[in-house]
Amino acid sequence: MKPSFICAGLGLMVCLSTAAQTRQSDEMAYRIKQEAFGNQKIVELSQWFTDFLGPRLAESENGRRAEVLVKEKMTEFGLSNARQEYASGFPKGGWDNRKTYVAMTEPYYTAFAATPKAWSGSTQGFVKADVVYLDVNTEADLEKYRGKLSDKVVLLPVSQTYTLRFSPLASRLTEEELDELAQDPRPAPRRARYRGGDYTLRSAVARFLQTEKPLAVMAGDGTFNVPGSRSVNYKAGDPEPVPEITLPIEDHGRMARLIQMNVPVKMELEVSNTFSPADTIVNNVIAEIPGTDPKLKNEVVLIGAHLDSWHGGTGAADNASGCIVMMEAMRILKELGVQPRRTIRIALWGAEEHGLYGSRGYAGRFLYNRKDKKKEAGYDNFALYLNMDNGSGRFRGIYLEENDMAVPFFRTWMQPFETLGFTTLSLRRTGSTDHATFNALGLPAYQFIQDELEYGRTYHTLMDTYERLSIEDLRVNAALVAWFALNAAQDNARIPVKPGMP
Ligand SMILES: [Zn+2]
């Protein structure tokens, strides 16, 4: 690839080449692979992030404990400036589950795997009650229940039923699927946004139950007797929401079917949750390998993943796996004694699951002030962001967010890793996690194409635990992140921001 040059005015005139010229040596690729594949450090780190740190719900006590411990771990890895860094306020305040017991007692006894929805309230101690199935298809149907629910447990309408699946639980992307992803997606119609009537009905039901105050509400979410982890709508200062518990759809469905057969159903339960005040804040946990080139050291290659998780399980695939890969990548670079030209920074984001609070807070403080429509100092120093948040599966390529200018860089850099299955550059956009914060500002910020493994079945549930991790895939991913971050830190050129942005 021949270099081409553009001049950009940044106060002084700075000349940047637009194409990668300086892939790191094959010897460095070898050393990174040897360090990533040759020891058991990633196994220790994986157990530490899951079993030891436990669930990391945003602004929960355990989430805060994790931040402190992760900061200490970064220091232990020899990274510089490890810190919990303020990102933003958090309107929900903190919430912690202290106790959950849920069982059906009539027509026979069965205890259920159950989990309270985050930010829902507590039962009045131990309660036993008749169960009512809320049979509503329209808002008007709610009226027949008015004034009748205060001493009942309410089963929400069945919204999901189980269907047998004949595809394997875990799979790797096939060559055909990767070829499909490699096709330029443009031009293509934007997908219509979902605005279902279902959502309106669900909100009406939630409002109705909040006024009628049943003893507790049971929702069905999750399969294979594993409830999903979800939350209710709540902001600090609102009245405490009625206790709402998620049951797997099998258990929820069983009680719904019994009631529809006119068999009386009773339950007993005790759920205790605590709320903490509104003045909670979202932190990111950040550390660096400082840049050494006098001209480039203020430029930042950022790698990251969200540290928060849902409260069920230990948030292993979502998103301890991303944190493990990013931390291991930093460990590898540190172990190899790399002295990068640009600064390599790791950021483990807070409160992603509730609306990307951590990364948005960071972008607002250091990159672009949306209110004043003004770039902050970090914007022009932003070299690259790499994010991981699609489970534990191996990286097979990267989504380049329609940024054609990024293609030559990754095409050059990826070559020593093609033999590990990293072969696909996709110009597609991929959604819904922290890279989107930066991509929305035109900055080069990407997520990888990952093998799905069991992600769809397990994330946001109680079974998102250590067992969901594929250690061998995490090793490959860590090596790839270390390699790309190093190349981006050393390259004479930088991936240009999208023209006309922000
Ligand atoms: Zn996630």
Describe this structure in words.
The protein has helices spanning 26-37, 41-52, 61-76, 175-182, 197-212, 249-260, 316-335, 357-366, 377-380, 407-413, 435-439, 455-458, 471-490, and strands at 5-10, 12-17, 80-89, 95-106, 110-111, 115-116, 127-133, 153-155, 216-220, 244-247, 266-275, 281-289, 300-306, 343-349, 368-369, 374-375, 382-387, 395-399, 424-426, 445-450. It is an alpha/beta fold and 502 residues long. The chain folds into two domains: 5-90 and 280-490, Aminopeptidase; 95-275, 3-Layer(bba) Sandwich (Glucose Oxidase, domain 1), CATH 3.50.30. Helix 1 runs antiparallel to helix 13 (471-490) and helix 7 crosses helix 13 (471-490). The protein is elongated and about 75 Å long. The chain binds zinc ion. Zinc ion binds at residues 306, 318-319, 352, 389, 433.
Please describe the topology of this protein.
Blueprint: E1 5-10, E2 12-17, H1 26-37, H2 41-52, H3 61-76, E3 80-89, E4 95-106, E5 110-111, E6 115-116, E7 127-133, E8 153-155, H4 175-182, H5 197-212, E9 216-220, E10 244-247, H6 249-260, E11 266-275, E12 281-289, E13 300-306, H7 316-335, E14 343-349, H8 357-366, E15 368-369, E16 374-375, H9 377-380, E17 382-387, E18 395-399, H10 407-413, E19 424-426, H11 435-439, E20 445-450, H12 455-458, H13 471-490
Parallel strand pairs: 7-8, 8-9, 9-10, 13-14, 13-17, 17-20, 18-19
Antiparallel strand pairs: 1-2, 3-12, 4-5, 4-11, 6-10, 7-11, 12-14, 15-16, 18-20
Short description:
The chain is an alpha/beta fold and 502 residues long. The chain contains 13 helices and 20 strands. The chain has helices at 26-37, 41-52, 61-76, 175-182, 197-212, 249-260, 316-335, 357-366, 377-380, 407-413, 435-439, 455-458, 471-490, and strands at residues 5-10, 12-17, 80-89, 95-106, 110-111, 115-116, 127-133, 153-155, 216-220, 244-247, 266-275, 281-289, 300-306, 343-349, 368-369, 374-375, 382-387, 395-399, 424-426, 445-450.
